[in-house]
Amino acid sequence: MSSTFDVMVVGLGAAGSSALYHLSKTGKKVCGIDQFVPPHAQGSSHGQSRIIRQAYHEDPLYVPFIKRAYELWEEIEKESGKQLFLKTGGLMLGNSNAGVIKGAELSARTHDIPYTYLSNQEISTRFPAFKPDNDVVGVLEENAGILFPEDCIKTHLEVAALNGAEILKNVKVTTIHTHSDVVTVGTNQGKYLANKVIIATGPWISEFIPELNLPLTVERQVLYWFKTNEPSIRLDNLPIYIWEYAPGKMFYGFPDLGDGIKVAHHHAGEPTSPDTLNRNISPEEISSMKNVISTYFNLNVEFNYGTVCMYTNTPDERFIIDYHPQHKNMIIASPCSGHGFKFASVTGKLLSQLALDEKPELDISLFSISRFSK
């Protein structure tokens, strides 16, 4: 195998695998490297399912990115013959002043996304698994659904390899040194040279760029699956959902894909690091989530299993997609803060454009590193 490349991608999770895929289509000599065997369960891109939606309650500015992401997910589905997306519809729930409700409506109106506003009675009638209080309303988006994260990563990498990309698995990067015209990537199996490097290492990213002192925090995230025989949790009866049950506090979940309903809190985990992450789920945590289900669902459930992943958060929960401020041959990718996977198809495209010194097809100024120094 070669030791010199036009572009190297360090970290082959959601963003990195997509970047390698897009770069592999350009005719450039490219290589991806990961300390594990992707897709794996050590980082932030595992757990069977991820939500994808367009009526983006976080900010209408994300909608052009997610619309492009839908197009690119469809593109690789056609290219690979693999199903990576399943349309289920998506329901945002909360009182009429909840951020998920107002935000979803704002994005939908701003970008002409079809949606239906539901009363609590309409929610109960259409989706009998839910148990909404009288003040709960819903914003139903027809085109929302599920991405299969492990399959997405695997497919990006398989197609990249077919296109000629080299992939190094179980290879740990130890150093990255930038020079004026080349980047040296040191690993536990030797050194490699590249004209450009993309760093997309998720919760490990600060280890490679400590000089930037980025204000990133890593958060433990627990995912739960509960079994029940109720037909109301089946795919044809339950959409993906995000429920803001108190100001700024929410849980989200999925219909039954075979192992029961999957449910998780959003931004409720303790700070951690990838090397100290507690991967055990306590009986108290299971009991607490079971109480959430008994409060907000018409279901009797039993715990099936769970897994633990990580969020890598910025203070404003926006992504980082930018050149290193001092080294234009290093691109930093942290599309992150617990809502980045759905964008991976377009994030990888944007990263590939930066690596090739092309103008990004979308305005990525809101994801700049410079915002942290203001």
TrEMBL record:
Q: In its keyword annotation, does this UniProt entry include Flavoprotein?
A: yes
Report the protein name in the record: N-methyl-L-tryptophan oxidase
Coiled-coil spans in chain:
none
Q: Might you give the EC number(s) for this enzyme?
A: 1.5.3.2
Record's keyword annotation contains Flavoprotein: yes
UniProt GO MF annotations: flavin adenine dinucleotide binding; N-methyl-L-amino-acid oxidase activity; sarcosine oxidase activity
Which domain of life does this protein belong to? Answer: Bacteria
Q: What class of enzyme is it?
A: oxidoreductase
Species name: Adhaeribacter swui
Pfam families associated with the record: DAO (PF01266)
Q: Which residues form the FAD dependent oxidoreductase domain?
A: 6-354
Required cofactor(s): FAD
Task: Write the record's keywords in alphabetical order, separated by commas.
Answer: FAD, Flavoprotein, Oxidoreductase
